[in-house]
Amino acid sequence: MAILLGIQAPAAASSAAGQGHPHQWKALDTAPRGSAVKQVVGTKEGPGNCVFDFRYALPPEGEALYVREIRRDLSRCVTEVAELRGQAALDAIAESNAEEKAEGRFKEVRKVAPTAGGEQSGPTASDHSYINSQGHGRTLWEDPIDATVAEVTNRVNWSWNNHNCVDPGWGGYRYYWLSASGWRLEENNFKNVYWCERQLSESSAHFFNGAFCAGIDTHAYWDRNQAAGDWDGWLRSGWSTRVEGGCTALLRFEHHLVREKN
Fold it and tell me: Rounded CA gap, 176 and 106, in Å?
């Protein structure tokens, strides 16, 4: 299944693309020292809307991945991200989490749930012992002062042995929004399922702010945010998120994929 990220583009940028205008980069942030910078080319879906495909994975020995959007050119449907891995990613994520805690008034909801059955009811009998792992995938939108305005985190706990089907554990979610600046959670849903190859924790959510942009409502949507644990120990994430309405050019995204236990 394709995991997509869509960002609402200004109508002027969309029309400029077809007229061969020069690049229209919108600077959003700077790349952290030591990061790998790459461009991701998306596809246009409807007037002024670009959709990007983001999927990431960590092997059993992988600790963390940090992704920050640093600039975008919606006239060409291109976004540029900076990536950190390992200890550098953990340090950047810790800094991001500390900033979030210091933001003042915010609201959040959390839930942990058992896993619903999939194609089989339990692990296959095996001479190979299972390893219990846990990790999360977090996707968030930040404003120009680096305040997290809306966030969706999915967490997965599963057991694997690289030979047999997964032994399902539990899944959970966390929704966060900066209520002090007018954000609120409008709707959400969550599922936690497994089949032989994978356990999947997945959420969708819609956040709204009527005060962020004077006279124009702003929306942040997560069509899907995923954290998945595989039979071979790999931790995977993917997301489909977009912002629509007023002043969306002021927002940028981050993604954190973290292995908490192995």
Answer: 7
* Tokens 């497994």 -> residue: 194
Whose CA is closest to 252, among 64, 25, 84?
A: 25
Query: CB–CB of 149/103 below 8 Å?
Result: no
What six digits make up the tokens of 122? Answer: 């339990």
* Euclidean distance between CA atoms 167 and 136, whole angstroms: 18
* Contact of 228 with 56, CB cutoff 8 Å: no
Burial class (CB in 10 A: 0-12, 13-18, 19+), 255: buried
Beta-carbon contacts of residue 39 (< 8 Å; ≥ 6 apart): 78, 79, 80
Instruction: State the pTM of this model.
Output: 0.86
**Rounded-to-integer distance, Cα 69 and Cα 233, Å:** 28
User: Which candidate, 39, 53, 44, places its Cα nearest to that of 9?
Assistant: 44
CA separation for the pair 57, 95 (Å, rounded): 22
CA 201 to CA 183: how far, in whole Å?
25
Which residues of the chain, if any, have pLDDT below 70?
1-22, 46-48, 102-106, 117-127
Whether the Cβ atoms of residue 113 and residue 190 lie closer than 8 Å to each other: yes
